[in-house]
Amino acid sequence: MLKKYRKYVKVSKRFPFIHFSKKNRASLVVVEDLWTKCQTEAEKILYLQLRENMYYPTPHYWIEHIRANLALVPYRLALIEHRPGMNEKRIIRQLKKRQWRVIFYESDQLLNNHNKYVNLILQQAPTKNVSTSS
C-alpha cells in the first residue's frame, strides 16, 4: 500500500520531514477574443502576434497578487511589462513557487522589434504536435 502513495510523499532531513505533493489539475481556459481588454499598444501587438501563432493569451491575468499583462495559462507563462522600480527578482521568485515562468518585456523595444519577444515566447511555450489522420 505504501508503494501506491510513494510518488506523492517526499521525505526530507529538515522540518517538516514529510511533504505531500499536490496533484495539480489541468487548467481550463475558455478561448475568447480578448484583444479589446489590452490597454497599451505593446500589449495589443503582442496579443495579436501570439494569436497568429495559434496561442491564446489572457490579458491582465492575476496570479495570486501579481498581475501579468498577458498570460499563457496552459503553459504557465506570464508576460509582464517592465516598469521602473519593479522588483523583478521578487516577482520571479513568487511565481516560480507557483510553477510559473516569467518573461519581462520593454514596451519601447517591443514596438520596434516584436519578433524578438514572440520568438522568445515560442521557445518557452512549445506547441504540441497534433497529427491529423486522413
Give a description of the structure.
By secondary structure, the chain is an alpha+beta fold. It has a domain at 41-124: Endonuclease, Chain A. The protein is 32% helix and 22% strand. The protein contains five helices and six strands. The protein has helices spanning 2-5, 41-52, 88-97, 107-112, 114-124, and strands at residues 9-11, 18-20, 58-63, 66-72, 77-81, 101-105. The strands form two sheets. It has a four-stranded mixed β-sheet, sandwiched between helices. Strands 1-2 form a two-stranded antiparallel ribbon. A hairpin with a 6-residue loop joins strand 1 (9-11) and strand 2.
So, CATH architecture of the domain at 41-124?
3-Layer(aba) Sandwich
User: How would you characterize the largest beta sheet?
Assistant: 4 strands, mixed
Oligomer: single chain
Count of helical regions? 5
Q: Tell how many strands the DSSP assignment holds.
A: 6
**Relative helix content:** 25-40%
Provide the β-strand percentage band.
15-25%
- In the CATH hierarchy, what is the superfamily of the domain at 41-124? VSR Endonuclease
CATH-defined fold name of the domain at 41-124: Endonuclease, Chain A
How far apart are the termini? Answer: 45 Å
| SSE string | HEEHEEEHEHH
The outline comes out as elongated
What structural class do helix, strand and pairing data support? alpha+beta
Summed over residues and divided by their number, the pLDDT gives a mean of: 82
Low-confidence stretches: none
Cα-atom radius of gyration = 18 Å
Strand order in the largest sheet: 3-4-5-6
By CATH reckoning, the class of the domain at 41-124 would read: Alpha Beta
